[in-house]
Amino acid sequence: MKLEGLKVVDLSVFLPGPYLTMVLADHGAEVIKVEPPGEGDPGRQIGPADGPSTVFFRNVNRGKRSVVLDLKTEAGRAALLALCDEADVFVETFRPGVAARLGFDDPTLRGRNPRLVYCSISAFGQTGPYAARPAHDLAAEALAGAVGLTLGRDDAPAIPGIPAADMLASLHALSGVLMALLRRHQTGRGDYIDAAMHESVLASMPNVLGPALAEGRQPVPKHERSMGGSAFYQIYGTADGRHVVLGGQEIKFVRTLLGRLDRLDLLPLCEAGPGPHQAPLVAFLRDVFRERSQAEWIAWFAPLDVCFAPVKTLPEALGDEHALARGMILTDEAGRRHVAPAIRFRDEPPEPRLREPALGEHTRAVLAERGGRAR
């Protein structure tokens, strides 16, 4: 696997850091998850469980080794420093300043191990007016403007269905870690990565920032190209109370569908671009889609070259024939299902270890390997 031999010390909790380090573990890295005594990572207690830990926890911590250290003690800090002295990557998600107070900030760790890639993930970054604010995903999305674009039919902001700030920060940080490791091959030195959830959201909206950047105005989501202003980028209800989407605005797709519906007279509305003028076409399609069930529309669209999809539930998505054919759902020895790694290599495919560690399961073994002892 691509990352065999890479040593990672992971002090992160919840979602952004653990997902990053799980991706590294899936591709062969040795990831040592350092947890506090007591309950460990709070993710161990979040949501339903289908085995020894919650689905939330195992979804972002499989393949790691758990070591319990009390970092408020000299022995615990000494053990952590020993782990970091031979590590390639260090990941933490404390509020800015906490790592320094505990004695394992970037200058300390990279002063001892110059090859270390040190990654901090926080809500707002290590500097600036918001740096010390407590925040999780929703607050970061709100301040970055994403929640203000996610409007319901009543035009009121709605909670997004995916943790965009958490996941985008994780993936930006992952990119940073890999770039720093690549550069280290040339310089022999690691680097420090300051990844912020807030900035990751801001940087991930290039397609909707036009009105704000160019004209200084708030976009009107229901008039914008990818947020409701186009009949062919829209959600429609079906006769059975379910929904489908049209997700491609290219004129070739518009012509195909409107031709099949004998309404090519509506084509100029799409040729004029997104906006309120498409309202008659949206109204027409809403009426059309209410005439059949979701299943009937799936069959009806099957022979057409149109960007169409049914809105699936999560259980349906996990059982989707394409996801299964692509091997995206894995099953462990206990019969639990896991989502497979999304990064694939032909020559060195990932080999995820479909087991999460018990709290402190590897403390004695890991520290013995490095000649130390816990706390």
CATH architecture of the largest domain: 3-Layer(aba) Sandwich
What value does the average pLDDT take?
Answer: 95
How many E-type strands? Answer: 11
Q: Quaternary state, please?
A: single chain
CATH topology of the largest domain: Rossmann fold
**What topology, given as strand order, has the largest sheet?**
3-2-1-4-5-6
Question: Major sheet, described briefly?
Answer: 6 strands, parallel
Strand content: 5-15%
Output the CATH homologous superfamily of the largest domain: Crotonobetainyl-coa:carnitine coa-transferase, domain 1
Sheet/helix structural class: alpha/beta
Count of helices?
A: 16
- Which CATH class of the largest domain applies here? Alpha Beta
Distance between the termini: 33 Å
Helix and strand pattern: EHEHEHEHHEHHEHHEEHHHHEHHEEH
- Coarse morphology: elongated
Whole-number radius of gyration? 24 Å
Q: Residue share in helices?
A: 25-40%
Number of domains: 2
Unreliable residue runs: none
Task: Give short descriptive properties of this protein.
single chain; 375 residues; alpha/beta; Rossmann fold; 2 domains; 16 helices
What does this 3D model show about the protein?
It is built from 16 helices and eleven strands. The chain is α/β, with parallel strands linked by helices. The chain has two domains: about 5-205 and about 340-370, Crotonobetainyl-coa:carnitine coa-transferase, domain 1 (Rossmann fold); about 235-320, formyl-coa transferase, domain 3, CATH 3.30.1540. β7 and β8 form a beta hairpin. α1 packs across α7 (about 165-185). The two termini are about 35 Å apart.
